[in-house]
């Protein structure tokens, strides 16, 4: 599955004169996108957010598979930090060249945390977290706080059996704390955690939990500044349940 699309994408990079280290499509494909497309199939809407799109190894097959669905949309965010990540304009150019209507996808450049903080609640049915591994808990907390996942949606954390194993321990604790269930998809190289909100857990964002999670993330050095923590605690106190 998706072999034709991946070959076309590879050929495109070669045609642009990109050398091997200039782009990378990892061994997790096509298992990762097969899992995503399968999970999205029964959902009423199919809005996808990918944190760390790199060279489009996940994005392109998913867009190919779902662009005909009226409810589908793809949003990607990548800081371009890794040497083998490709500018989003280049990936968009590939899709346009292959007649995939441009209104269905947007590849953004920037830091994931800054980007997520600008998004509105309930925007996505599937969020793939696949960027710098120590930052997974930071992004998960923002997803929870800003309620970025639709009630029926999924969050996928990639590489949780390998490079993201430490970060996943924290994310798993956050699942327990904030009412999310999780299961493992071992078919995906590196391991994939599939996370959902528990339906019987309506409002679990109590301010103490939020403050605790923020502090843990700060302590583990996942990139959150003290000022952010203080602001987060203040916000949590303001929004707390009676
Ligand atoms: C493992 S690769 C992503 C692979 C991609 N999801 C795929 O399936 O082919 C990680 C990507 O995360 C990006 N990245 C690293 N830190 C980031 C950050 N703080 N915000 C956004 N993107 C980041 C890197 O530039 C890199 O392209």
Short description:
By secondary structure, the protein is of the alpha/beta class. It contains nine helices and seven strands.
Structure notes:
This protein has nine helices and seven strands, in the order ααβαβαβαβαβαββαα. The protein starts with a helix and ends with a helix. A hairpin with a 6-residue loop joins strand 6 and strand 7 (192-197). Helix 8 (207-219) packs antiparallel against helix 9 (226-238). The chain has helices at residues 3-15, 31-40, 59-66, 88-97, 112-116, 136-145, 165-178, 207-219, 226-238, and strands spanning 46-51, 72-78, 105-109, 124-129, 149-158, 180-185, 192-197. It has two domains: 3-202, Vaccinia Virus protein VP39 (Rossmann fold); 205-242, no CATH class. The chain has a seven-stranded mixed sheet with strand order 3-2-1-4-5-7-6, sandwiched between helices. Helices cover 40% and strands 19% of the residues. It is α/β, with parallel strands linked by helices and 242 residues long. S-adenosylmethionine (SAM) binds at residues 25-26, 32, 50, 52-54, 57-58, 77-82, 85, 111-112, 130-132, 135. S-adenosylmethionine is lined by residues 25-26, 32, 50, 52-54, 57-58, 77-82, 85, 111-112, 130-132, 135.
């Amino acid at each position: 599955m998706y072999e034709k699309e991946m070959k076309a994408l590879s050929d495109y990079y070669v045609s642009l004169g990109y050398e091997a280290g200039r782009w990378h499509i990892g061994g997790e494909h096509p298992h990762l996108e097969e899992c995503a497309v399968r999970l999205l199939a029964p959902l009423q809407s199919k809005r996808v957010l990918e944190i760390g799109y790199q060279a489009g190894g996940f994005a392109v097959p998913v867009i190919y598979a779902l662009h005909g669905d009226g409810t589908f949309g793809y949003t990607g965010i990548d800081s371009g930090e890794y040497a083998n990540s490709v500018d989003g304009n280049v990936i968009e150019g590939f899709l346009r060249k292959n007649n995939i209507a441009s209104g269905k996808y947007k590849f953004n450049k920037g830091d994931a945390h800054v980007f997520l903080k600008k998004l509105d609640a309930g925007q996505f049915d599937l969020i793939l977290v696949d960027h710098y591994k120590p930052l997974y808990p930071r992004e998960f907390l923002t997803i929870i706080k800003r309620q970025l996942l639709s009630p029926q949606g999924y969050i996928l954390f990639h590489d949780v059996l390998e490079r993201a194993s430490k970060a996943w321990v924290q994310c798993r604790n956050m699942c327990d704390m904030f009412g999310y269930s999780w299961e493992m998809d071992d078919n995906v190289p590196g391991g994939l955690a599939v996370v959902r909100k528990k339906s019987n857990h309506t409002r679990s964002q109590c301010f103490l939990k939020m403050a605790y999670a923020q502090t843990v993330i700060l302590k583990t050095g996942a990139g959150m500044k003290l000022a952010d923590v203080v602001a987060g605690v203040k916000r949590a106190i303001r929004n707390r349940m009676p």
